[in-house]
């Protein structure tokens, strides 16, 4: 079945460009468009897309709030949100990730990267390069809690090895890098990451990284 995509951007010309790129792919179908966050909410309810390609800066309702309402607590719909940004360190990206986005992509990314990002997010993975995860969380650590708050009870549900894996995820390491660091197989790492996400009630490794910072398990700037 084709991946159903909703395009959300306040610039019609950009939406047209994205549509042309995505509709050239046999496994992707653009099911609708929206010019702001409010329209996006209506379209998500009506069209039930698999992936929402979401601009951040829009009139009436921005992409952060729209993402929060699409993917927030209590939302059982299938839609994943891939955030679009003009700058690779847009100050709103961290907020969008915390709101439930599965990753972000630069608007000037090559066409093949856009297509691959749609497929990755539709498959339930996070589209965010490890180095970008680290840079974002370190640069915008001021948006996150200080870490002085009590450690969440949910953190105690993890095994010692799962805590190790979570710390490495938060540092922006890929599964292959984590496997090398812990001297285990990538399959084992994937299993541990899956357990971490399930136990903590998180959608993907991006939210796991944010959780690690918010809980105080990892400190901004720490190696």
Furnish the topology, listing elements before pairings.
Elements lengths: L2 E6 L3 H12 L4 E7 L2 H11 L3 E5 L7 H9 L8 E6 L7 H7 L4 E3 L4 H12 L7 H10 L20 H11 L4 H8 L3 H15 L4 H10 L9
Parallel strand pairs: 1-2, 1-3, 3-4, 4-5
Keywords: DNA-binding, Phosphoprotein, Transcription, Transcription regulation
Protein name: Response regulator transcription factor
Pfam family, one: Response_reg
What does this structure look like?
- The protein has helices spanning 12-23, 37-47, 63-71, 93-99, 111-122, 130-139, 160-170, 175-182, 186-200, 205-214; strands at 3-8, 28-34, 51-55, 80-85, 104-106.
- It is α/β, with parallel strands linked by helices and 223 residues long.
- Strands 2-1-3-4-5 form a 5-stranded parallel β-sheet, sandwiched between helices.
- Helix 1 links the parallel strand 1 and strand 2 (28-34).
